[in-house]
Amino acid sequence: MDRILTAADTDYDRAIELKAFDETKTGVEGLVESGIIQVPQIFIHPQKDLYNYKPTSPNLQLKFPLIDLKNINEDPVRRKEVVEEVREASRTWGFFQVVNHGIPGPVLGQMLDGVRKFYEQDAEERKKWYTRDAGRSVVYNSNFDLYNAPAANWRDTFYCQMAPDPPKPEELPPVCRDITIEYTKQVMRVGSNLFQLLSEALGLKSDHLEEIKCAEGLLLLCHYYPLCPQPELTLGTSQHADSDFLTVLLNDQVGGLQVLYQNCWVDVPPVPGALVVNIGDLLQLVSNDKFISAEHRVLANNVSSRVSVAGFFRSDLTKSTKLYGPIEELLSEDNPAKYRQTTVKEYVTFFNTKGLDGTSALSNFRI
């Protein structure tokens, strides 16, 4: 690509610029490697989307929930306390962090290192994986909604469906192959524990959410946020909620993730060894709004590149035909179903077609 236009240009054709950027097959990291010093116009967000809402009340409690899972399977009293903490966080924030989740620190570190190595390897090697064919076992590109979103995000991603039917090992990138397989095993176990706690927090038997197959599928999304020369003009990820049942997120210590809580953007504080957990749209749907899928975003920065690994617990879109609606046991005359039934494929297809435009996909499924 010879040239990428900036906001100062007048002969700007967005469609042409999007295509030119996509055809480099090196993502945002490729722009940074080329020595770019201005954010191209396709990445510039309206100022209203960049605004950092502050608390309107000085008494607003903004302590981000941190839950210690130590001994929850051995100590019934502690488990009951944790279930209550999970219920409160899922009802009010839609987000919480967990420590003592059981994944060893070295595994977390190696997973983040593996993702970073993928993006920081030679551009020609990265190009081999670049595709917009969602049917591939590993998909690497920049902005899944590049051609639909109002503005592109300063972020590259590669993702793969790791459960229930993982790709063959040789189909995964060599630089992070072994650790991706190991991390998947570990995070599936954590997910099972979390779904049990969430089931109990809804007043259901502990295996209910697993029985309806909320935990059987895992999509790993490995994000890379390169250094941004003008972070005040763009976002790493624009405002959105997640299109799954539950997300288990591994972050590095750079920070930048924010959650919209009581109309205020709140920083998620980096905690060494912690995992960030958030309720997805589909869990809000099946819980009939007992739990909330909170809007969140990631800021761009010019201090350090950022790596994160999001584990999306949701079925394989190509194989699951199961219908999901509000759980019957949670409904009553006073609390009727608020959503129509849908499949994971229908929901995610609608979500992806809509793109990260700052609106909730759930509203399309409300009765």
TrEMBL record:
<keyword id="KW-0560">Oxidoreductase</keyword>
<comment type="similarity">
    <text>Belongs to the iron/ascorbate-dependent oxidoreductase family.</text>
</comment>
<dbReference type="GO" id="GO:0031418">
    <property type="term" value="F:L-ascorbic acid binding"/>
</dbReference>
<dbReference type="InterPro" id="IPR044861">
    <property type="entry name" value="IPNS-like_FE2OG_OXY"/>
</dbReference>
<dbReference type="GO" id="GO:0002238">
    <property type="term" value="P:response to molecule of fungal origin"/>
</dbReference>
<dbReference type="GO" id="GO:0046872">
    <property type="term" value="F:metal ion binding"/>
</dbReference>
<dbReference type="InterPro" id="IPR026992">
    <property type="entry name" value="DIOX_N"/>
</dbReference>
<dbReference type="InterPro" id="IPR005123">
    <property type="entry name" value="Oxoglu/Fe-dep_dioxygenase_dom"/>
</dbReference>
<keyword id="KW-0408">Iron</keyword>
<dbReference type="GO" id="GO:0050590">
    <property type="term" value="F:desacetoxyvindoline 4-hydroxylase activity"/>
</dbReference>
<dbReference type="Pfam" id="PF14226">
    <property type="entry name" value="DIOX_N"/>
</dbReference>
<dbReference type="Pfam" id="PF03171">
    <property type="entry name" value="2OG-FeII_Oxy"/>
</dbReference>
<feature type="domain" description="Fe2OG dioxygenase">
    <location>
        <begin position="214"/>
        <end position="315"/>
    </location>
</feature>
<dbReference type="GO" id="GO:0009805">
    <property type="term" value="P:coumarin biosynthetic process"/>
</dbReference>
<protein>
    <submittedName>
        <fullName>Iron/ascorbate family oxidoreductase</fullName>
        <ecNumber>1.14.11.20</ecNumber>
    </submittedName>
</protein>
<keyword id="KW-0847">Vitamin C</keyword>
<keyword id="KW-0479">Metal-binding</keyword>
<dbReference type="InterPro" id="IPR027443">
    <property type="entry name" value="IPNS-like_sf"/>
</dbReference>
